[in-house]
Every structure is written in C-alpha cells, then in structure tokens.
Amino acid sequence: MNQLSRKYLVGLAVMSGLLLAASFPPVPTGITAFLGLVPFLFLVENMRSTWQAFRYSYLTFLVFNIFTIYWVTGYDMGRDPWLFAAGVAVILVHPLLFTIPGVLYYRVFRHLGQVVALATFPFIWTAYEWLAQLPSLSFPWLVLANSQTYDIDRIQFIQYTGAFGASFWIVGVNILVYVLIIKMGLKHWDFRNPKFYMVAAALVLSVLLPALHGRYVLNQKSYHATVNVGIIQPNIDPYEKWSSEPGARMKLLRTLLNAYESLGKRKDLDLVLLPETAIPFYILEQAYLPQKQLLQETVNRVGVPLLTGFPDIQYFTEDEAPPGARKLPGDSGLRYESYNSSMLVLPFSPQVQVYHKMKLTPMSERVPFIEIFPFLADALSWGVGISNWGVGKDTTVFTLPGKDYGR
C-alpha cells in the first residue's frame, strides 16, 4: 500500500478509538464496536516498522481509554491529588497492554500476509483479553464483550462461550466489514465476484444468527426462580462518605437505612441492593457494634434481605500474612488486610454472608505487583476509599431463604 501521511494515520487512530469508546456503556450505541477495529486494521497494515505499529496502537487505545475510564481519576484533583494521579496513571499505562494485539497483527501481516493475519486476529485479540485479566493487571471493564450490554438478544450465546466468545465474535465481524471495504474500495472485487457474496453472506449470518438464537432463548418459558430486587443509589459526596469526623458514620448509616426502610415497604421485594462500599467502615468489627446492631434491627423490622457493599478486615500473624499485608500499630505482631466486600444481611439471622472482591482496579484499588513490592502499600494510598485492598480468594454464592436457583 502507498504510505499514508502522518495526519491521516493519526486520524485513523483517533477514529478507531472513538468508535470503540462510543460502543461502551452508558452510551447505548454498541453497534459501533463492529466498526471500531476497521480503521485500526487499515492503520496497522500501513505501518512501516514494529515501533511505528506500537506507537499508533498506543494512540488508538489511549483515545479509547480516555473516553471510557475517565472516572478512575476521581474527577477532583484538588481534594485528593494522589487518587487523581493514580487514575491518570491507569489511563496512560493501560493502553500499553492494548499495543500487544496491534503489534502481533503487524508482525503476522508482514511475515505471513494479509489473509493469515486477518484469520488469526480474532484469536490474537481474544488471547490478549484473557491474559490481560490475570492478576495483578486484571481490568475487566474494557473487554469488547462489555460493549454489547444493551443488546441482550444478540449475546445469549455467551452462556456457552463466556464473554471472550463475544469478543471473538465482535473482532470477526470487524474483519468481515474490513475485507468488504478494502476489496471493494480498491476495486479488487466488484458485484460480479463470487467472493464478494461469500463474505457478505458470512457478515449477514454472523449478525443474524446470534440474534435469532437469542430471541429463541429469551422466548422459552423459564423454570428458574425469579427475584424482585429494589436498588438504592445514594447521591453522597465520596469525600464526605469516607469522612472520619465523630458521628459521621452513624449519620451515614441512618441515611442509608432510612432509604432501605422506605423501599422495603413494598410487599413484592425479595432483596434490596446497596452499592459498592455503601457502608464505608468496618461494621463487622467490635468497635462498630452499635452500628451493626442498628443494621440488623432495621433488617429484622423491614423483613427484606439487604445486600450491601462494605470494607471487611482480616488479621494475620507474621507467618500467615499474605504479601502486602500491613502491620497493626503497636507491638501486637499482627498484620491485617482490608477487602472491598459485600455482605448479605438476612432478617433474624446472626450470621452474614460475605464476599471479598477478587477483581480490583489497578492503582485505584490495588497497586499492581504489590506482592513483589510490599513497601508500596503504605507509600501509595489515598483518602477516597481504602486503597490497596486485599484480593479475595474465592467466589461466594449468596443464599436467600426459600429460593431455589438450581431448577
């Protein structure tokens, strides 16, 4: 291909990043995900070196990251500059991982040709996404499958393939669109060429079949139990939420429980849901026994199970402590880890069911590779939320009384 100008290459990178970003929630335009990689493929095929492929891949996904995960900065630099800096670091560093599929595609394209490169790119991309979810760089928000959140019909097949199957499918559709545009645009094909109809048919089927399958699945009579859920989304300033001022925590808890009581008056609810870290203190600790008693008494009175986020804490001896665990003040010899957690509180049940979050946002929730560099645990911490959370060890299946979800 003829060498394109730098301005044109930058335009392709920005276009690809914007199309991909536009496909992610909360914007309900997931269809742009099926076009987002088309400019990127054309861009990479016009690179002259691996270094150039790396640079323009980084630019593409820097744009993508800026418009999709801007929220990790915490917005307000003046109130917590460390949190803001950590969020900016995520936005600047995370696109480096996205250069992997771009560089690999370029290398395959240069050495094995376009056909092999296009055929292998869905595998390259999906393998990259899978590897990118491994600790400590796990960042599941930007998996391509998440772009189809609003298209419930079309993604029912992920019950068999998982989210990575949807990503593979999206990349495959991009490739079919790209082939049609390139071959027709360069006049390699015309409407008399049978290859045009083969690729066009494959494109139509790749979009139509998942939709038909999804419609069939969703129209089937369900024998599974259903749950009526009430959701509370408080509008609370996070800096006030994590305040340590006397009485602030009890005041916040009462605000949340008042909303819970109001919603719980509905007789058809099986569960009420509060957000992540809605309760921003160690409510299960003995020091917060009055708050815990108030919570349990309110749930007993309302009679509706409550699922809420909160921070949990575990203590360890020096020998048992995981890497990155912090020392308790004083000479106790103990260490502790905090966990971004959720708990299910049932009426008249003294035991709560607890889950510790396993997928943590790099930098904002946990410093990557802190197991190797434990000194960073205290050096990098900030005020909104408890930074450097511990990593949960296993999933938890919450159980609601009287509900059978197995049939």
Give the gist of this structure:
By secondary structure, the protein is α/β, with parallel strands linked by helices.
Euclidean distance between termini CA atoms? 57 Å
What is the overall number of helices? 12
Q: From the alpha carbons, calculate the radius of gyration and give it in angstroms.
A: 25 Å
Low confidence ranges: none
Beta fraction of the residues? 5-15%
Query: What is the helical fraction, as a range of percent?
Result: 40-55%
What integer is the average pLDDT? 87
Q: What coarse outline follows from CA principal-axis ratios?
A: globular
Q: Total number of β-strand segments?
A: 6
Largest sheet: 6 strands, mixed
Order of helices and strands: HHHHHHHHEHHEHEEEEH
Broad structural category: alpha/beta
Any idea how many domains?
A: 2
What does this protein structure show overall?
By secondary structure, the protein is of the alpha/beta class. The chain is globular. The mean pLDDT is 87. The protein folds into 2 domains: 214 residues; 151 residues, no CATH class. Helix content is 47%, strand content 9%. The relative contact order is 0.09. α2 packs across α7.
Features:
six-stranded mixed beta sheet, 2 domains, 47% helix, alpha/beta
What is the strand and helix layout of this fold?
Layout: H1 6-22, H2 33-45, H3 50-68, H4 81-112, H5 114-132, H6 158-161, H7 163-185, H8 194-219, E1 229-231, H9 238-241, H10 248-263, E2 271-273, H11 289-302, E3 306-317, E4 326-327, E5 334-345, E6 353-356, H12 376-379
Parallel strand pairs: 1-2, 2-3
Antiparallel strand pairs: 3-5, 4-5, 5-6
